[in-house]
Amino acid sequence: MNELQAWVAQQHHGLRTFKSFQLELEQFAVRQPAQRGLCSVLANLVESYIVAFDEEPVPVDLANDVHHRLTQLLSTLDLDGDPERRLEDINRVANFTLWPTPQTRA
């Protein structure tokens, strides 16, 4: 389990976690400058979810699903990988759809 996955896994599934995750990513990027690109795409990934539900209640099942999807995505990252692996991770995150989840698409 990497540091980012561990942090998210310990958090509540609510919207505040995703807002806090963006702050955590900023701090992580300072500690791990080689991960700035990854942190940027991860922050963008959660932004649409935050914007969609800002000031609105998030259905519990949806919150649980999105939290699980983010945790699973983070588990695939190799934060100690070589530059080629880091680029693969960045591209995978950039192409990942966190929200809307497949179940919520009409």
CA(first)-CA(last) distance:
34 Å
What is the oligomer described by this structure?
single chain
Going by helix content, strand content and strand pairing, the class is: mainly alpha
Task: Please report which band the strand proportion falls in: under 5%, 5-15%, 15-25%, 25-35%, 35-45% or over 45%.
Answer: under 5%
- Backbone shape: globular
Tell me the total number of β-strands: 0
- What integer value in Å does the Rg equal? 13 Å
Enumerate how many helices there are, as a single number: 5
Give the helices and strands as they follow along the chain.
Answer: HHHHH
What helical percentage do the residues reach? 55-70%
Specify the biggest β-sheet.
Answer: none
Low-confidence stretches: none
Features:
5 helices, mainly alpha, globular, about 110 residues
Protein model, in words:
- By secondary structure, the protein is mainly α.
- It has one domain.
- Helices cover 66% and strands 0% of the residues.
- The termini are far apart.
SSE layout and pairings?
Layout: H1 3-9, H2 15-31, H3 36-53, H4 60-75, H5 83-94
Give a quick summary of the entry.
This protein is mainly α. It has five helices and no strands. The chain has helices spanning 3-9, 15-31, 36-53, 60-75, 83-94.
